[in-house]
Design goal:
Layout lengths: L5 H9 L4 E9 L5 E8 L6 E7 L14 H20 L13 E7 L2 E7 L15 H17 L21 H6 L4 H14 L5 E3 L8 E3 L6 E3 L6 E3 L2 H11 L2 H25 L6 H26 L8 H14 L5
Antiparallel strand pairs: 1-2, 2-3, 3-5, 4-5, 6-9, 7-8
Helix pairs in contact: 3-7, 5-8, 5-9, 6-8, 8-9
Length: 329
């Protein structure tokens, strides 16, 4: 039985007079709740999106990783996301757009996050395939997001962002076949975590978490469950790996990296943080293959037949292993 009255909470947080309808958007991973659009009658705010987190009604994990560790990780992820919206999200301006936070209601482990409806604000396109211009809009978002939070301590967030972070994935590491990459997992993780320049990373910057403007090449991002500290290359490698096959990853590597660092430089300049840019670029370019290898490690333990495992990622993993002195795969 739901303890929180969803409609009453929406009206309380928005000042609305009535809810006139709703539209399901999606269920949360493993059935931990739902995301729903609610339409309001006669108000300045015509619609809102509500993320309803209710882990008491969870289902089995769709990929079979249904453990207590997995459950606790998800619970923390929703705590992190709630804090993100309350304490950090307002700093995301038009260059790294996110949903405006309208309010929160909590009772025990049940949480309602009431957010701006990005679709109503013009970001009404969710894409499975993208043009190069659309990829570049997302890369630009990531660079501006990372620039915004460059050098900041992720207080209250994940100390190391990304949902595949090694310290939160011992089961997947254990499941990996023996080999150099498994042996090098800690060293790769340490290289990324000990980089001199750290920011706050989105942590799940996949295509499905970007909403596109139908008119202009602009995007907004959603889903901040795994936001936390880290090297910005983690987000960039993960995003590109979800957009391109091996051939295109190879073909566009220089173009993507050059665009990212150009946008990052622009953002740091606007914030008065430009003095360290050359050192950031030098370090992060060197860590781009490490970010690929880190996610590749996770996939080999989580779902070794995953389509993102390809010759390009394997090439970068081999480079990293050789650099670390672990030989090749």
């Amino acid at each position: 039985m739901t303890e929180i009255s969803i409609e009453a909470s929406i009206l309380d947080l928005t000042g609305g007079s009535a809810v006139k309808g709703q539209e399901a958007i999606q269920s949360l991973w493993s059935g931990y709740g739902s995301i729903t659009r609610y339409f309001l009658a006669g108000e300045a705010v015509k619609s809102v999106v509500v993320k309803h987190i209710n882990p008491l009604v969870k289902d089995a994990h769709p990929s079979g990783w249904n453990t207590d560790r997995s459950h606790q990780r998800k619970l923390k992820s929703y705590e992190v996301e709630s804090l993100w919206y309350q304490q950090y999200n307002s700093r995301c301006d038009d260059s790294c757009r996110s949903p405006r936070f309208l309010g929160i209601k909590q009772s025990g482990q049940e949480t309602l996050l009431v957010l701006e409806d990005l679709f109503a604000s013009g970001f009404d396109q969710v894409k499975q395939k993208v043009t190069m211009e659309e990829v570049e809009a997302c890369v630009n978002w990531l660079a501006h997001f990372h620039g915004t939070f460059m050098g900041e301590t992720p207080e209250g967030l994940w100390s190391s962002g990304t949902y595949w972070h090694l310290q939160t994935r011992p089961d997947e590491l254990q499941a990996m076949a023996k080999g150099p990459l498994k042996l090098a997992a800690d060293a790769i993780d340490q290289r990324l975590n000990q980089s001199r320049f750290q920011t706050i990373v989105h942590g799940d910057a996949k295509l499905a978490n970007f909403c596109f403007d139908a008119v202009a090449p602009k995007v907004a991002a959603v889903d901040f469950q795994y936001v936390g500290g880290g090297c910005g290359m983690k987000d960039l490698a993960y995003f590109i790996g979800g957009c391109f096959d091996a051939r295109l990853c190879e073909q566009y590597e220089d173009r993507i990296l050059n665009l990212y660092f150009s946008s990052l430089e622009q953002r740091l300049q606007s914030l008065g943080k430009l003095s360290s840019f050359a050192r950031i670029e030098e370090e992060w370019r060197s860590l781009y293959p490490f970010a690929w290898a880190d996610f590749h490690r996770f996939l080999l333990g989580w779902k070794p037949g995953h389509w993102k495992i390809n010759t390009y990622s394997e090439k970068l993993v081999s480079q990293v292993l050789e650099q670390l002195g672990y030989g090749t795969q």
